[in-house]
Input
Amino acid sequence: MAERLVSTYSIAACDPKAKQWGVATQSKFLGVGSVVPWAEPGVGAIATQAYANPRYGPNGLQLLREGLSAPEVVERLTKEDEGRDHRQLGVVDSKGISATYTGQECMDWAGGRTGANYAAQGNILVNPETVDALAETFESSSGRPLAGRLIDCLAAAQEAGGDSRGQQSSALLVVERDGGYARMSDVVVELRVEDHERPIEELRRIYKLHDEIFGKTPRRLWLDVDDELARELRERLARLGYEGELEESLTRWTGKENLEDRVDGIAEIDPVVLEALRSRT
Output
């Protein structure tokens, strides 16, 4: 077959309340993020793997745009594909309806599991518990940000057994209409670990860096800047060479550190900004 074998496990999912769709995946395969994950806000999320047919991504999203449900998309894609017996596919549509497909020629262990708002699947796995861990971790983590939940799903799946060939790459994609950079992008998170001994741990590490810069702390969790905290801020900023009026100094420093979107005056401070300042001084 012309396609490359993407032995992997993945979860395609959505958070209807946050209006986010996403995919997370790990594989003993170089650069799994270039093949498996596809998502579009308000449309759905797709994971294509095993002897992957990458056209399942764009073609499946187009079918979802046309109003087909996740099960209908899986049926349409696989029916028209002569290589269907070697494919694996997971789809979640705009309503959170999900479907998973495992061709009868996929290498053991291979299979999938679905539930409200997610489709979990994997092939060449150590055991079926790997997919169970994806599903159960997702089901037990509602109310938390989707990106973090998906990384936790991968970690739980690896702990349960994972890819029988080992680890190599991982990827995370989360989309939301105008939810990305400067509210002018639909990509909330798109991170890839192309080649690493422990790709899920590395994915979590770079996600933490991403969240520090691009994440948002609810305003109710910001800290009041009283006299004592203001004095600490001035002292720490001065050590870094930022002196003068506190608000102006903090604005200059956060701009240099790409944290400017987490600053709004000086009456309150985002705890992420405070932690970053303390860690650098």
In short: Helices lie at 56-65, 70-79, 129-139, 146-160, 199-214, 227-239, 246-256, 271-280.
